[in-house]
Amino acid sequence: PNTYVNSLYGQGARFLRDLRKRLGEEGFLTFLQRYYRENAWQRATRRAFFRLLNELGADVSDLVRLYFQR
Q1: Are 16 and 51 in contact (CB under 8 A)?
Q2: Given CB 3.0 to 4.6 Å as the disulfide criterion, which of 16, 23, 55, 67 pairs with 27?
Q3: Cα dihedral angle (47, 49, 51, 57), rounded to 10 degrees?
Q4: Residue partners of 38: CB distance under 8 A and separation at least 6
Q5: Using CA atoms, how far apart are residues 25 and 46, in angstroms rounded to an integer?
Q6: Residue 2 has pLDDT above 90, yes or no
Q7: Residue 45 and residue 63: Cα distance in Å, rounded?
Q8: Which residues, including other chains, have CB under 8 Å from residue 15's CB and lie 6 or more apart?
Q9: pLDDT value for 56
Q10: Whose CA is closest to 29, among 50, 56, 68, 67?
């Protein structure tokens, strides 16, 4: 169970940490605020998450490969 929890939540937390570094503090907060506004009261999806990053001009393909395509 610990391996699963670490893999599931740990990888997500590390991805968000690296995303924050990539976007910078202001860019990351802007992203989160917009993501929240656009997805409030509905099921947020992976597609919506990465679509918004793409709209903001953030190329995170290397991070996606590192964290999600092993």
Answers
A1: no
A2: 23
A3: -150
A4: 48, 52
A5: 22
A6: no
A7: 18
A8: 63, 67, 68
A9: 92
A10: 56
Amino acid identity of 22? R
Question: Side chain identity at 45, as an amino acid letter?
Answer: T
Q: CA angle, 6 as apex, 4 and 8 as ends, to 5°?
A: 65
Instruction: Kindly report, residue by residue over 13-69, the tens digit of the pLDDT.
Output: 999 999 999 999 999 999 999 999 999 999 989 999 999 999 999 999 999 999 888
- HSE on the CB side for 34, CA within 13 Å? 15
Residue 70's pLDDT band (boundaries 50, 70, 90)? Answer: low
Residue of 3, 35, 2 lying closest to 16 (CA atoms) = 35
